[in-house]
Fold FAD-binding PCMH-type domain-containing protein.
Amino acid sequence: MLRLHPYVYHRPKSLKEAVDLLREHAGDVLPIAGGTDLVPNMKHGLFTPGHLVALKGIDELHGIEERDGELLIGAAATLTEVASNYLVREHFPALAEAAAGIAHPMIRNQGTIGGNICLDTRCTYYNQTYFWRKALGFCLKKDGDVCHVVKGGTKCVAAHSADTPPMLIALGATVDIASAEGARSVPLADFFVGDGIWNRRLEPHELVTAVRIRLPEKPIRTLYTKVRERKSVDFPILSIALAATVRDPDVLESIDLVISALGAKPRAIGGLDKIAAGKRLTAEVIEAIAEQAHRQCHPLDNIIVEIEWRRAMVPVYVRRALQDLLENGRGKAAPGDGRGSD
């Protein structure tokens, strides 16, 4: 049996109390919301904080509402709430699909959108028990100085494996961050960095408090799909998020394509406006976008799936996603119907 180490559990009632606790116990504290990823990692000895600061009892972190032309989602909103909320489903159905396809209902009922945004990176050589990691000699991300993925590598390449951030980036979302020193906001596209040890621009004493998405002035088409070893529970080994402004008849005004689960941060595919803006979404344009994604995506051997196959699947699933986007408009499919859960 994997046991938890001793720690002090704090249950603040306000955001101020929570950030004050994070400052007071700096270096030996972690926030916890749903705990669906943190607790298993603690059992594996990947994190051993002396203090945990619980966030679910803080009213300021809950709620989903329209405010000032934006959809505001509190960081403590559960994945089930995001997947089923009528505002999310009306304005950004693919975000609802992304949340609905995570793990299984028990995880979604407990896990939060803020926790999914801040999900720790994953790697074959990291997400193991202490005994397993010690026998191997540890790794660059935890307790060691050797990267087992990139021999001689000096930067961790553990993979970003969260579902909602790629879709949120494609939608141009912003995250609100609070600390005892004050508050700030960061576009989610700038929130992640390419370091698998700590892949986000978030100091240990800071909290993500909300995610905001500007309500579109023009109708947009959105889609999220992913590949995983099983059709439920597993983390993605490839995920694709699309958001496009389309002018009839199927003329692209703009397109954002974000691909994740291949490296330490989601990758926004560049150069698409030059390829597709002002053009109809024909087979030729779809193929050009798929090839652009293939050129820019280079997975590493950080999970137990061949990297050649993972890279080969990038253009395949981009083509499928674009064709689906073309045929199904805004993609208002109900969670669980198979779309976005492959």
